[in-house]
UniProtKB/TrEMBL annotation:
Natural source organism: Brevifollis gellanilyticus
Annotated Pfam families: DUF1501
Protein name, UniProt field: Sulfatase
UniProt-listed PROSITE patterns: TAT
InterPro entries according to UniProt: Alkaline_phosphatase_core_sf, DUF1501, TAT_signal
């Protein structure tokens, strides 16, 4: 309950007052007025909004591989690197390290993809590879924050928050932005926060990065009260909150509480059903790899992501880590890829079968890439000058590779795509002009891309 000038009633006291004669009438009157206000407010910040222009994508699933996957071992084929493995590297005192995995061309498009992703490779003609990605710094906290918020220096709203602010949500009974098992490190809650945007636009966290998603819960989804009594109780609390807001004129914290209380009440009806996978067929669970210990956890998250977007959630982020392979690359990179390959392919297949892929933008990648030279004998260091991400569905060209790195994959040399460009392009696919999607704060208009960013038009279908 917010800090206000009214007496602080406990739940028991409010219910006791509500059940007594005059107290009940007063309570009911307040509740009725608050209910009217609630109905109006639900037309507000989360209501669907018209994009700036016709959208190619209606929703986003961001498969975030925390730690920086090695592009030269996965989606950026460098035969010359393999041929010169052991030769002097791109930095003094280093040696080149060729990929330990074979690459092959896949699909009618002939995209080169590593054997580490045999199932994803079956979707080659749906993938749009961005092989010339760049970010500002080769440090995890800064690069991860920039990937999520556009800034590594200041606290800024996240990509998901900007998306929800610009478009609203399709389902008022669910959060518009959900993040599954986000990391506590590398910026933590900032990566799905709303910063100076209203608090209702921040992401709803489900689970944590060090626990299986199957055990994750959203607290307090079940109430010991009946729906009618809980609604009446909430209406009284909201009346007091709105009185505080009317008195203060401007109080973002109270505004956020009002909206979040209403959303939480509505979530109790629908969210448990979305989280429950028991209605899924065994064939679908197998498709996502839930019957395999190695793929079950990430498969569970990918299946939840599909259920969330299918239910109207606008933006879902699915985290997986750690891809920070300074050492023991041969074992750990292989294990990471094996744990996500089948679930990702299952997600793409499932979305396509349900007619959702055409307007769902699926994004895969991490905060930066890895060096072509060895760290030790079996590892790679951070590389912010070149890395690969890919997109599928949502209005991008399938079976297409954009940009080039040098012969060894050390630096992007053609059609460079900065993180600001990536953000501008994602918003464009959603029908949002990144230069017009602004919010006035501290006397100036802010946007996700600040004063930078260009839409990568070459990848648009």
């Amino acid at each position: 309950m917010t800090s206000i000038d009214y007496p602080a009633f406990s739940r028991r006291e409010m219910l006791k007052t509500a059940s007594s004669g005059f107290g009940y009438l007063a309570f009911a009157g307040l509740a009725a007025r608050a209910a009217d206000q609630s109905a109006v407010s639900r037309e507000g910040p989360l209501a669907p909004k018209q994009p700036h222009f016709p959208a190619r994508a209606k929703r986003v699933i961001f498969l975030c591989m925390r730690g920086g996957p090695s592009h030269v071992d996965t989606f950026d084929y460098k035969p010359k690197l393999s041929a010169k493995s052991g030769a002097p590297g791109t930095r003094p005192g280093t040696k080149l390290l060729g990929s330990k995995w074979n690459f092959a061309q896949h699909g009618q498009s002939g995209l080169w993809i590593s054997e580490l992703f045999p199932n994803v490779a079956n979707h080659a003609d749906e993938l749009c590879l961005l092989r010339s990605m760049q970010t500002d710094l080769p440090a995890h906290p800064q690069a991860f924050l920039q990937m999520h918020t556009g800034s590594f220096q200041f606290v800024r709203p996240s990509l998901g928050a900007w998306t929800l602010y610009g478009l609203g949500t399709h389902n008022e009974n669910l959060p518009g932005f959900v993040t599954l098992t986000p990391p506590a490190a590398s910026g933590g809650a900032q990566n799905y926060g709303s910063s100076f945007l209203p608090a209702i636009y921040q992401g709803t966290r489900i689970g944590s990065d060090n626990r299986p998603i199957a055990s994750a819960q959203i607290r307090n989804l079940k109430s010991p009260l009946t729906t009618d009594v809980q609604r009446a109780e909430l209406d009284l609390v909201q009346t007091l909150n709105r009185a505080t807001l009317q008195r203060d004129q401007f109080n973002p914290a109270v505004e956020g509480v009002i909206e979040s209380y209403e959303l939480a009440f509505r979530m109790q009806k629908e969210m448990p059903q979305v989280m429950d996978l028991s209605s899924e067929t065994e064939a679908t669970k197998t498709l996502y790899g839930l019957d395999n210990e190695a793929t079950a956890d990430f498969g569970h998250k990918c299946l939840l992501a599909r259920r969330l977007v299918e239910s109207g959630v606008r933006f879902v982020e699915v985290s997986h880590g750690d891809w920070d392979q300074h050492f023991n690359l041969s074992k750990t990179l292989g294990a990471n890829c094996a744990s996500v390959d089948q679930p990702i392919a299952g997600l793409l297949t499932d979305l396509k079968q349900r007619g959702l892929l055409k307007d769902t933008l699926v994004i895969w990648g991490g905060e930066f890439g890895r060096t072509p030279h060895a760290q030790g004998t079996d590892g790679r260091d951070h590389n912010n000058k070149a890395f690969t991400m890919w997109m599928a569905g949502g209005g991008v060209k399938g079976g297409f590779a954009h940009g080039l790195t040098d012969d060894y994959g050390y630096e992007a040399v053609e059609d460079k795509v900065h993180v600001h460009d990536l953000h501008a392009t994602i918003l464009h696919l959603l029908g949002l002009d990144h230069e017009k999607l602004t919010y006035n704060y501290a006397g100036r208009d802010f946007r996700l891309t600040d004063v930078k960013g260009n839409v990568v038009k070459e990848i648009l279908a």
